[in-house]
């Protein structure tokens, strides 16, 4: 009888436990992104020619590249918000009262910096549009592609001006709310994209959905911060100089740039060396590989603020145990997902009547290996970054640049195989062993955390 009552109680409380779990919400967001293959992508694949689909992925990567103009500042703000949130108020209040003065100063500084970064995003997007027009004039210089690009341009610039609001929520331990916002934004994006595709909008429909996806999390996060964290806006802000932030932020930004060049940046190499048709197949397969990559990374993603908190208290043993368990779980998840996708994806696209096929199985398998190697490096790098440590910066940036350049060189001679060989060669020689070594060495060292973790007077990234 007791077992029956226990089971009934578990069934009754399980939904609420799931709803309170940050990891469950991260997985829900990831699952909804994967649902793109059921909801939006099948219709896009049936209606868009391969050349237009290849052009669309190039547009998305132009906007993604321009986002890097902030050089990882949003992640720095998120980590600093974690430290302020956990810090007792300087006026002498006890307990876990957040440092509202520090948080207020952080928001004021971010608002000022991101207003300038918005201008950088504008000029960067315009430069990317000119490049697309020069490389693919027949496809780009038409009303629909130009309209779609300018929708993405406006959305990208507006997003850049407020990019820090959602990471701020993440940093103040509102991971669940941050992911709920992402979940709702994806749903709204699907609704706009599907409605536009049904109305015959094609590229404009996809651009409209992407604009919603970029902007909704920004404005919703800002509204939550302003309505539920009122002391932040009624407390005199602490004066926070930008130079200490920049001294650490540029390192995180360099890591992001290197990682982007070695993964998503290869789409540019495919578009330049293989043509839009083959580039469309590569981009579609790459999208699947990195959706699985991000899905697997979710196990560790939800624990970034926890790792930062452990580092602030000097508990390196807790970080090591947490990192080992989560990294192992992430890699196991990726291997299972990649194997299933390698088997199913070609059949699925054929069943959907796609005009754009996946890469052939040998190339598709190699692409999943590339994504797996990148995930292994990224997991160890993110543990270091969450601890405000950047010994991996030079290696990741150098390898990213080398991968990007060699992809153009190898791709022009060997096609897709050359593009795939570039990251395997560069990461296999350097980062796949160096970054994990740096990570575990840092966690093993007995140096006091104060030497690597500045106090709020010298803001960390």
Let me know the largest β-sheet.
Answer: none
**Alpha-carbon distance between the two ends:** 55 Å
Mean pLDDT: 82
Helix content: over 70%
Note the overall shape.
Answer: globular
Secondary structure class reads mainly alpha
Count up the helices. Answer: 21
The number of strands is 0
Poorly predicted spans = 10-14, 88-94, 446-461
Name the assembly state.
Answer: single chain
SSE order = HHHHHHHHHHHHHHHHHHHHH
Descriptive labels:
461 residues; mainly alpha; 2 domains
Write a brief structural summary.
With 461 residues, the protein is mostly helical. 80% of the residues lie in helices and 0% in strands.
Could you walk me through the main structural features you see in this protein, from its secondary elements to its overall organization?
The protein has 461 residues and is mainly α. It has 21 helices and no strands. Helix content is 80%, strand content 0%. The longest helix has 36 residues, at 100-135. It is globular and about 55 Å long. The termini are far apart.
Secondary-structure map with pairings?
Layout: H1 2-20, H2 22-34, H3 36-39, H4 41-47, H5 50-67, H6 73-86, H7 100-135, H8 137-140, H9 143-161, H10 165-171, H11 175-198, H12 203-228, H13 242-261, H14 266-273, H15 275-301, H16 304-313, H17 316-351, H18 361-386, H19 393-414, H20 416-429, H21 431-444
Helix pairs in contact: 2-11, 2-15, 5-7, 5-9, 5-15, 6-7, 6-10, 6-16, 7-9, 9-12, 10-11, 10-12, 11-12, 13-19, 14-15, 14-19, 15-17, 15-18, 17-18, 18-20, 18-21, 19-20
């Amino acid at each position: 009888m007791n077992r029956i009552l226990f089971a009934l109680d578990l069934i009754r409380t399980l939904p609420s436990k799931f709803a309170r779990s940050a990891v469950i919400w991260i997985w829900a967001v990831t699952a909804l992104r994967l649902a793109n293959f059921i909801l939006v992508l099948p219709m896009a694949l049936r209606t868009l020619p391969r050349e237009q689909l290849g052009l669309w992925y190039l547009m998305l990567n132009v906007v993604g590249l321009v986002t890097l103009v902030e050089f990882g500042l949003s992640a720095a703000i998120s980590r600093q918000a974690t430290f302020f949130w956990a810090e007792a108020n300087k006026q002498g209040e006890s307990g876990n009262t957040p440092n509202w003065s520090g948080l207020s100063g952080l928001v004021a500084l971010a608002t000022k910096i991101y207003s300038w970064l918005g201008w950088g995003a504008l000029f960067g997007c315009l430069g990317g549009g000119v490049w697309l027009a020069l490389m693919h004039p027949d496809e780009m210089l038409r009303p629909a592609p130009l309209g779609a690009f300018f929708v993405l341009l406006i959305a990208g610039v507006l997003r850049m001006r407020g990019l820090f609001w959602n990471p701020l929520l993440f940093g103040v331990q509102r991971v669940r709310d941050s992911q709920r916002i992402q979940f709702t934004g994806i749903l709204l994006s699907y609704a706009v994209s599907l409605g536009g595709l049904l109305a015959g909008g094609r590229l404009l429909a996809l651009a409209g959905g992407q604009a919603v996806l970029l902007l909704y999390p920004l404005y919703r996060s800002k509204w939550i911060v302003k309505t539920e964290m009122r002391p932040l806006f009624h407390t005199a802000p602490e004066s926070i100089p930008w130079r200490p932030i920049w001294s650490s932020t540029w390192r995180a930004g360099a890591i992001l740039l290197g990682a982007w060049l070695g993964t998503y940046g290869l789409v540019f190499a495919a578009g330049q060396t293989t043509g839009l048709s083959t580039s469309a197949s590569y981009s579609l397969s790459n999208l699947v590989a990195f959706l699985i990559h991000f899905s697997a990374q979710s196990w560790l993603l939800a624990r970034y603020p926890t790792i930062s908190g452990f580092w602030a208290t000097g508990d390196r043993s807790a970080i090591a145990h947490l990192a080992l368990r989560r990294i192992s779980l992430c890699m196991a998840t990726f291997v299972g997902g990649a194997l299933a996708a390698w088997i199913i994806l070609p059949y699925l696209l054929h069943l959907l009547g796609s005009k754009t096929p996946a890469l052939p199985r040998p190339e598709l398998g190699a692409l999943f290996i590339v994504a797996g190697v990148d995930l292994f490096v990224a997991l160890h790098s993110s543990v270091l970054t969450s601890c405000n440590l950047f010994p991996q910066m030079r290696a990741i940036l150098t390898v990213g640049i080398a991968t990007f350049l060699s992809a153009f060189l190898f791709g022009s001679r060997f096609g897709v195989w050359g593009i795939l060989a570039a990251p395997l060669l560069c990461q296999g020689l350097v980062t796949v062993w160096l970054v994990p070594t740096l990570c575990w060495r840092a966690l093993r060292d007995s140096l006091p955390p104060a030497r690597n973790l500045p106090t709020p007077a010298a803001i960390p990234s």
